[in-house]
Write the structure tokens for this entry.
Amino acid sequence: MEIVVGTKKWSSWSLRPWLALKRTGQPFKETVIELRQAGASEAEIAKHSPSHLVPALKDGDLVVWDSLAICEYLAETFPAAKLWPQDAALRALGRSAAAEMHSGFSSLRGECPMALEVAPAAVAISEATQKDVRKIVERWNQLLKRSGGPFLLGDWSIADAFYTPVATRFRTYGIHLSDYGDTGAAGAYCERLLQTPEFLAWEADSLA
């Protein structure tokens, strides 16, 4: 397999399926395309992705070009990796949480983009972004309470892949979850996401 990703310090949508692919333990080729290069980036991406966006996963003649679709394809292709839990109820909740991240929280994504090269510093954020943060903390607390942790569905899953870039945003922009209804579980989970071997490998590459 080959995964085509954008600049690692910026591309949160690339990070998500990359983490899932790394978790399978399968060998893969990685192609990194530098973003923010005006038309040059789009032209280069178009060679790999029918959507002209990253990420894209190539498996033989098949190209899958959406983050969530790539993760679901990996879960079906490598069931032994257990990217989703066996419990049907937890799996449904995890898919709901991942889809919510996939389509929502636009204010947080726009105002606080992933920027792994930026030193953490507290910044003022809008009320709309504060609302997103409160909702994310609520969702994390809800799922951690039901599953018992240490990750959203118990063991690490695609849902955690989808929220790892969020954890980087909270760190970069100095967002303290205790200000948004966290009693400790969400903050500890946020730190846990940033300490997984897969994320640390991505981060090291992004800063090299």
